[in-house]
Design goal:
alpha/beta; globular; five-stranded parallel beta sheet; about 35% helix; seven-stranded mixed beta sheet; disordered C terminus; 3 domains
Length: about 675
């Protein structure tokens, strides 16, 4: 962003129509997305100047997760061509469509100097410059390069705000927000400064949490026994320097955070991967610890899909948004696995087998219409359907078993740790082959079907008849974890690296359903699994996953202030608190403790009761994020029209002196729109 050393004097064009002001608490992707939608909708709803404050200790646009100041070894788990912050012709929204480049196209435009306001110095940052030069749609970009894209997207949105509008970044946190008698909002920064603003949007993204429950017990145990315990946190933020070469470390979790951990403790410690007769081999540096990896499934998340589709065009048939809503409306209490899952599972079978039959006809022995008739009518778990699949698909490896897909080690027992390692490596090789080789495009179709189901299910997040336990445990936890395991795993290269690390003995898999306990006599953590006999002991345990977005345990002062003040409330399903901030789906307004919405505050992103669409979107998918951001942006602009109409000048900028602005915005970085920009 264009950063200036002095404050910008804010001058209103019309003293009778003071410039209105909104403040985002958190300036990551959700804030950037709403700003983009504000810029797109501003001319239609309210074309007068607007001041936008972005308050975040991390870089605006990218935020904490995608910031530049982290290891260049850490990557997105999405291909560059699958990442965009811009609406397209698939977007069904009320506001204008304003297309922009996806990450891969942006990189090409930067390389060819058709975008000229992004500078990556080849002398100062040769690795990032080399990555930009080689980035293609199928590449998995680093988070550092993604930060440059996200920053540019936010700058582009600022450029598209109406003339006279300005955007300001405050490198700070927020302590509290309070209401004035006039309705204006006073935002207290942790620097001691205050901002008076018309509207506040809580967009703080993924937050940390205070340790509690089992994590608190393990923390206290480790301190008392001089062991080491790393509670759930952001992998890139933790210091693992106390872990010595050769230390045996128990790791719980095999998702993306665990992959980051493995990368940091292997490649990050000087190891390297080499090709040996086509096979990847790991060459240790000697500084690595020994990582014993475990999880409920006992295997890593499924490799990211890379095989192109080859068969007939797919459109959902058994589980669409309309069907999902009909199912929810048809029962007094909505149970995820009773009412929704049978239809979801049939939809997954439909997407998978449609592609197999039409994309790889030599691997089947029945016509598609004949198979489809059975798929439509038979019990998927009955003998008749199993017989149909066996008759139609000769190779058992081509059969879809959703339960086995989810729990590949379920029921398996191994005589030794060595047998278990061989089995998991075999699983990873097969997974990598079938999700990246063009011959097995039915697995890509399964991903597409699951993604469409995900969008349809997300629309049910706020229906009022959820059975509470099913909502919290089945929908918010098990379903989202299943989706992430199948659809949001690591790049294929990471799976190949795990295979090489396992063969080199640097990592080891502990089996499925691992249980970890603390041994008070020895001061060790003890891991056991039904997959393999015996136990493993270590004085170091790492829980490799992000903290839960729970209000009760949040480390965010401003979120606690929001709930404690009654300006917002925790969502309650039935009589059970969910841990999420309660917002109105139609416009993102916060719901107050006493009921009703707060007239001046909104919330968006992780940790809210709004359906979660992700930090960015896949192009041409009618992305849920864009629909949510557009609704909130239009509500914000509409509220500003109401405030202007009421003649409320309480939060207006009216040409304060440079001295006053320097005091208010001390330490902030500023950027303002260039209305003549052609970006």
């Amino acid at each position: 962003m264009s950063r200036h050393n002095r404050a910008i004097r804010l001058v209103d064009r019309d003293a009778h129509q003071p410039t209105r002001c909104i403040t985002f608490i958190g300036a990551g992707p959700a804030a950037a997305g709403v700003v983009e939608r504000i810029a797109a909708n501003q001319a239609e709803i309210d074309d007068r100047p607007l001041i936008i404050h972005l308050v975040d200790p991390y870089p605006p646009g990218a935020g904490r997760i995608w910031r530049d100041q982290q290891s260049g070894l850490l990557k997105l788990n999405s291909m560059a061509g699958d990442v965009t912050m811009f609406t397209d012709d698939s977007s069904i929204i009320d506001g204008p469509i304003d297309p922009g480049p996806d990450l891969a196209t942006w990189a090409e435009l930067v390389r060819t100097r058709r975008i000229t306001d992004v500078e990556i110095d080849i002398d100062r940052d040769p690795e990032l410059a080399a990555e930009l030069d080689g980035l293609r749609p199928e590449s998995f970009p680093t988070r550092r390069l993604h930060e440059r894209y996200m920053t540019w997207c936010l700058e582009r949105s600022a450029d598209r705000l109406q003339p006279g509008s300005k955007v300001m970044w405050h490198r700070a946190g927020v302590v509290s927000v309070s209401d004035t008698e006039s309705g204006a909002q006073v935002v207290e920064l942790d620097s001691g400064d205050e901002l008076t603003t018309d509207l506040v949007i809580y967009s703080f993204g993924h937050l940390g949490s205070h340790v509690s429950g089992e994590a608190k017990f393990f923390t206290d145990f480790a301190q008392a026994k001089e062991a080491r315990y790393y509670a759930p946190a952001f992998t890139a933020d933790l210091d693992y320097s106390d872990i010595a070469p050769g230390d045996e470390v128990l790791v719980r979790g095999l998702g993306l955070a665990a992959i980051d951990l493995v990368v940091m403790l292997t490649l990050g410690r000087g190891g390297e991967f080499v090709r040996d007769r086509g096979e990847l081999r790991y060459v240790p540096s000697g500084r690595e610890p020994k990582l014993l990896l475990s999880s409920r499934r006992g295997v890593p998340y499924r490799s990211k899909i890379a095989a192109p589709l080859r068969g007939s065009h797919y459109e959902p048939r058994f589980f669409t948004p309309e069907i999902a809503q009909q199912l929810a409306d048809s029962v007094a209490e909505l149970h995820f696995y009773r009412d929704l899952w049978p239809h979801i599972e049939r939809e997954l079978h439909y997407g998978y087998y449609l592609e197999l039959f039409t994309g790889s006809p030599r691997r089947v022995s029945l016509p598609w219409p004949e198979f489809l008739e059975g798929l439509e009518t038979l019990d998927l778990h009955g003998e008749a359907y199993r017989a149909l699949v066996e008759r139609a698909v000769p190779d058992a490896a081509d059969h879809l078993d959703v339960d086995a897909l989810d729990r590949p080690l379920a029921g398996e027992r191994f005589e030794s740790a060595e047998e278990l390692q061989a089995r998991v490596r075999e699983h990873m090789r097969n997974d990598l082959l079938r999700r990246t080789d063009h011959r097995y495009s039915e697995n890509t179709a399964l991903f597409v079907a699951l993604f469409r189901v995900y969008l349809a299910v997300a629309e049910l997040a706020t229906v009022r008849n959820w059975q509470p336990e099913s909502y919290l445990n089945d929908f918010q936890r098990r379903w989202y974890k299943f989706f992430s395991y199948i659809a949001s795993g690591p790049p294929g290269e990471r799976i190949e690296q795990l295979i090489a690390l396992s063969a080199a003995g640097v990592i080891e898999f502990a089996g499925a359903d691992v249980h970890v306990r603390a041994d008070g006599e020895t001061g060790e953590f003890v891991a056991t699994s039904p997959s393999v006999p015996g136990e493993r002991r270590s004085t170091t345990l790492i829980d490799a996953w992000l903290p839960d977005p729970s209000i009760r345990n949040t480390d965010s002062a401003v979120l606690r202030d929001l709930i404690d003040s009654g300006a917002g409330r925790e969502q309650v399903v039935g009589s059970t608190p969910s841990g999420y901030v309660d917002v109105r789906l139609s416009d993102g307004r916060l719901i107050r403790a006493g009921g009703g919405v707060h007239p001046r505050r909104y919330a968006v992103g992780p940790g809210t009761s709004t359906p979660q669409g992700g930090a960015f979107a896949r192009p041409h998918t009618n992305a849920l994020s864009f629909r949510i951001w557009d609704r909130i942006a239009r509500a914000i602009l509409g509220e500003l029209v109401e405030i202007r109409g009421a003649g409320d000048h309480s939060a207006a900028h009216t040409g304060a002196s440079d001295t006053e602005l320097e005091q208010i915005f001390d330490g902030a970085a500023y950027f303002q729109p260039d209305t003549e920009s052609t970006r």
